[in-house]
Amino acid sequence: MIGKLFGEICDISSDHIIVNVNGVGYIVFCSGRIISRYNIGDRIELITQTIVKETDISIFGFVNSIDKEFFNHLLTIQGVGAKLAQTIIGSLDVNEIIQSVQINDDTKFTKISGVGPKLAARLVNELKSKRFISKLQNIKMKQEINISDNNQSQIILDATSALSNLGYAETQINSAINQIISDKADLDNLKLDILIKDCIKLLSS
């Protein structure tokens, strides 16, 4: 299974690129948002998902783990295939997805090519899963604070555990921490006790 590809773009099409990796050209299906950023000859790094069928093996590429997570979840929804899932990802970013689902608004989905009113309503209903929205928020939050910094990551994990012990729901905790982290200009001075206090203040308001 191919998890990541690093190489040079040697061809670009409307729905895929060909990445030269040590002399081997891999066809990687990407969203229009990704394709529009690059030119032939550019170096690229992609997180990948391989879809295996009886007569075909396709590789889909993503620039971050949020898009890949969303892609795989979309594939579990009736009426959504890999190509349509990629189109949806290229049309909406994670903030738009979360907001639309939380307010039960399917209008953004109906504007996507290949998504009719019935499928748009189904997408919102399926994506309403609190576990999935929470997972999206969690991944987004970790990326925003640079997950490679183990100290910051541990602080967030400890704060999440402490708030959970106080009786707050996982979705509430993730939303509060995400909001506080997004508002902070200096994450290097992130403190556990202050983060917990700020979260409690926000959750109690």
Automatic annotation (TrEMBL):
It comes from the Bacteria. Keywords: Cytoplasm, DNA damage, DNA recombination, DNA repair, DNA-binding. GO terms for molecular function: ATP binding; four-way junction DNA binding; four-way junction helicase activity. Pfam families: HHH_5, RuvA_C, RuvA_N. Residues 72-91, 107-126 form the Helix-hairpin-helix DNA-binding motif class domain. It is found in: Cytoplasm. One of its GO terms (cellular component) is cytoplasm. CDD domains: UBA_RuvA_C. Residues 151-205 are annotated as: Domain III. Its main location: cytoplasm. One of its GO terms (biological process) is DNA recombination. InterPro entries: DNA_helicase_Holl-junc_RuvA_I (IPR013849), Hlx-hairpin-Hlx_DNA-bd_motif (IPR003583), NA-bd_OB-fold (IPR012340), RuvA (IPR000085), RuvA_2-like (IPR010994), RuvA_C (IPR011114), RuvA_C_sf (IPR036267). The RuvA-RuvB-RuvC complex processes Holliday junction (HJ) DNA during genetic recombination and DNA repair, while the RuvA-RuvB complex plays an important role in the rescue of blocked DNA replication forks via replication fork reversal (RFR). RuvA specifically binds to HJ cruciform DNA, conferring on it an open structure. The RuvB hexamer acts as an ATP-dependent pump, pulling dsDNA into and through the RuvAB complex. HJ branch migration allows RuvC to scan DNA until it finds its consensus sequence, where it cleaves and resolves the cruciform DNA. Homotetramer. Forms an RuvA(8)-RuvB(12)-Holliday junction (HJ) complex. HJ DNA is sandwiched between 2 RuvA tetramers; dsDNA enters through RuvA and exits via RuvB. An RuvB hexamer assembles on each DNA strand where it exits the tetramer. Each RuvB hexamer is contacted by two RuvA subunits (via domain III) on 2 adjacent RuvB subunits; this complex drives branch migration. In the full resolvosome a probable DNA-RuvA(4)-RuvB(12)-RuvC(2) complex forms which resolves the HJ. Belongs to the RuvA family. This is Holliday junction branch migration complex subunit RuvA.
